[in-house]
Amino acid sequence: MAEAYRGVIGAFPYAFRQGDSLFFRLYVIVGTLAALFIGGLFTLALVVWIGQTAATPGGSLTLSRTFIAVVGLFTAGPLLAPTLLVARKHRKGLSYHPRYDTIMAALGYAFLISLYVAAIISMPESFTLDGEVVTRPQPSGLTAPIVAILYAIPQPGAIAPPAGLLGVMAAVHYALSR
C-alpha cells in the first residue's frame, strides 16, 4: 500500500483511502479545500500588494511581501497537517492511539474554527472601502454575546486562537504517538 503514496500530493488520496473514520475522510476533503481557498486568498493578497507597491523601491516593502507569504503558510499549513500526519502514520505502519485519525481530524476542524474566530477578533471597527467608510456590523442573534466578547479583544489578540490550537495539535500528536 505504501507504493500508492507518492509524495505530498499523493498523501491526500492515500490518507483518504487509509483513514480509519468517516469523520477523518470528510476532514481530508474539507481541510484540503479550505487550505486551497485560504492559500488562494493569500496569493491574491500578495499579487495585489505587489501591484500597489510596484513603483516603490524594496526595503521594508520586501519584508511586508514576505510577511504576507509567511502568514499564508502558517494559516494554510496547519489545515493540511492532520492529513499529512495520518498519511505518514499509515504509510510507515506506526503504532498510534486507536482514535488518532478522528482526534487529528477534530483538531483540524477546531483550527479552522479558530481561524474564523481570529478573523472576527481582527476586524477593525471601521475601514475605508472604495472611498466610503464602512463600520463592522453590530452583533445580533443567538451568537451576539460571543461576538461582542470577541470584538472586545484587542486586534493583536487575534493570533492567540490559531497559535494556541497549533500548539494543542502538536502536543496531542506527540502524546498520541507515544
UniProtKB/TrEMBL annotation:
Key word Membrane present: yes
Transmembrane region(s): 26-51, 63-87, 99-121
One family name in Pfam for this protein: DUF8056
Domain DUF8056 per the UniProt entry, residue ranges: 1-176
InterPro entries: DUF8056 (IPR058369)
Keywords: Membrane, Transmembrane, Transmembrane helix
Keyword Transmembrane helix included in the entry's annotation: yes
Protein name in the entry: DUF8056 domain-containing protein
